[in-house]
Amino acid sequence: MRRLIFCLSLLFGLISPGYATLYSATGTIYLLRSHDSRYGANADWFSLVGVSSLGLCKTLDGGFTVLHIRDDQKGQRMFTLALAAKTSGTQLTVWVDDTIKDSGGYCYVLYMQ
Questions:
Q1: Phi-psi sector, 59: left (phi>0), alpha (psi -120 to 50), beta
Q2: Would you state the pLDDT for residue 95?
Q3: I need a surface site. Which of 3, 65, 69, 90 has the fewest CB within 10 A?
């Protein structure tokens, strides 16, 4: 019986779900870009001062991590929050999952405050 319990616990331990790693960073906004529709959906992005790496998220030539904002209602709220932080010079904290990227390898912002 002990052997069966041991084997079952080992089996359940091996097939337990894996969770993605969230990365966070805090800083003031270095650059905030908004593009019109000819660039396609999800083309708005920003970068934070001093954030040169965030997991496996792609960076620009200047060494800043690019954080894309989705083109939906929640993304519009994120853009508004990023614009307010840029205008006032306050710090912004963002979270990304480096496995959720666009076709160019840039990460999408999941949360911000």
A1: beta
A2: 96
A3: 3
For the sheet containing 67-68, what is the strand order?
A: 22-27, 92-101, 107-112, 67-68, 45-48, 29-33
- Cβ neighbours of residue 20 closer than 8 Å, sequence gap 6 or more: 97, 99, 100
In a domain, 40, yes or no: yes
Task: Tell me the C-alpha distance between 98 and 100, whole Å.
Answer: 5
Query: Does residue 101 lie within any of the structural domains?
Result: yes
* Strand (E) or helix (H) holding 30: strand 29-33
Q: Are 29 and 49 in contact (CB under 8 A)?
A: yes
pLDDT number for residue 16: 46
Report how many domains make up the chain.
Answer: 1
Contact criterion met (CB below 8 Å) for 27 and 51? yes
pLDDT for position 15: 52
10-residue stretch averages of pLDDT, the chain, 113 residues long: 56 52 92 85 89 88 87 93 96 94 90 93
Which residue in the block uniquely carries the two structure tokens 């990304």?
Answer: 96
